[in-house]
Amino acid sequence: MAASASGSAGALRGKRLIGLSVLVGFPLLIQLIVLIFSAGSGTSFNVFAENVQAYVRIIIPLALIFLGTAALGDEWEGGTASYIVAAPIARGHIVLGRWIASAHRALILIVPALLLLFAMCMIPHAGTFADYAGIYITRLIWILVAVSLLSLGYTAVFLFFGLALKRSVMTSLVYVLVFEGLIGNLPHGFATLSMSFHARNLIWRMTELTSFQPPTFGIVDATPITAVQSVLTIVIWAVAALVMSTWLLKRKEVTGSTQGESSDG
Questions:
Q1: What is the overall mean pLDDT for the chain?
Q2: What are the residue boundaries of the structural domains of the chain, listed by start?
Q3: Taking residues 216-223, what's their average pLDDT?
Q4: DSSP for 122-177, written as a single string
């Protein structure tokens, strides 16, 4: 596992590090401007929750596109795929290692940003925070759990795209904008196919923050999705993507091709 996770593909450095840092840190910059020019007004847990919505819907999937697709895709683009194919390591271990490494790189950026944002939103309300610290911290923990789970799910899907498709970044963008962005906001019957829906549903169920309640468009859902079902759905998505990635990597080994097995994206 250590050998498969230690590869440089998808490394968090150079232009990729700068670009992702700007992306993940953008809400922090906005909040800093609010603190400076509004004398601390407009800061509260609700403001933090609104920013978390931006992370769940936009920032996390965009960040994972570039980290997930590069986890194995960089090997083919950089011409080093032959080392992966010839390595005496189980293909499942390689996929798991790169998946864990990519998700870890994303969370290194995302979790500290959310914690800092939480502090920036709550510190101006020190008295209120002291009164309700237990509630706020519990909600924060559940938000971090949902964000971590979502990051693992997205990483697995985008890792598969990076291994299977030549134009994996473009395909992933379409997936995020159309499938997650559009379908994830339709009534429950359609939205349940979206990992973003399940992350928001998990936060809503565990924190009762109505801003995370998935839209219903006035449709009464006789069988609402529970928090456990949302967790299981994201896990199933991740496992399915990892299994397909392992199968595809084994197929590349069997054919002896490191360049020609990827389909056009």
A1: 81
A2: 2-255
A3: 59
A4: HGGGHHHHHHSHHHHHHHHHHHHHHHHHHHHHHHHHHHHHHHHBTTHHHHHHHIII
Given a cut of 70, whether residue 63 has pLDDT beyond it is: yes
Question: How does DSSP classify residue 187?
Answer: -
For the chain, the C-alpha Rg in angstroms (whole number) is 20
d(CA 23, CA 54): 11
Report how far residue 215's alpha carbon sits from residue 213's, in angstroms, rounded to the nearest whole number. Answer: 6
With vertex at residue 246, the alpha carbon angle to CA 250 and CA 76, rounded to the nearest 5 degrees, is 70
Residue 216 CB: number of other CB atoms within 10 A? 12
Q: What angle do CA 7, 13, 19 make, to 5 degrees?
A: 130
Is 263 strand, coil or helix? strand
Instruction: Judge whether 184 and 194 are in contact, CB under 8 Å.
Output: yes
Whole-model pTM: value is 0.85
pLDDT at 211: 82
Residue whose token pair is 């990992």: 195
Query: Over 90: is that where the pLDDT of 255 sits?
Result: no
- 142, 207 in Cβ contact below 8 A? yes
Handedness of CA 34, 35, 40, 44 (dihedral sign): positive
Euclidean distance between CA atoms 203 and 188, whole angstroms:
16
Query: In terms of residues, how long is the chain?
Result: 265
Q: Mind listing the pLDDT tens digit for each residue in 2-14?
A: 444 445 555 667 7
